[in-house]
Request: fold
Amino acid sequence: MRVVIQRVSEASVTIDGVVKSAIGKGFMILLGIEAIDTKEDADWLCQKISALRVFSDEAGLMNLDIKQVEGEMLVVSQFTLHASYKKGNRPSFIRAARPEQAIPLYEYFVAQLNIAIGKPVATGSFGADMKVSLVNDGPVTITMDTQNKE
Reply:
């Protein structure tokens, strides 16, 4: 699994002109699922993300996690995070999991984040053509990949 986490002051997902989800202060998470990914990968990511200390404390230092600032999360599926671009100019997405594997793992990931932060996590719609809008706060952007845990 690969994620791009952006600390945001606000973010939203619009589908067919209708806002599906919107959050205030928190994390906008793009989630890419690979064919080799498992629930253990999702568990590891959820633990890392929910404990990630990138919010400012009273001294202005990045020292607080999302629960401490009562932040929100928005998760959007993004198979293009597993693009292979080594040959030619048209990326290949062969490493991305097929929907029959990816959808249950995406749903599991979201459910585990719900538990980890103790509140509902907003989502896009898996496989939909989504318009994502966000205001990156900082900017702070962090990538994580379960194939590179060390």
Remarks:
- The CA atoms of residues 32 and 79 lie 5 Å apart.
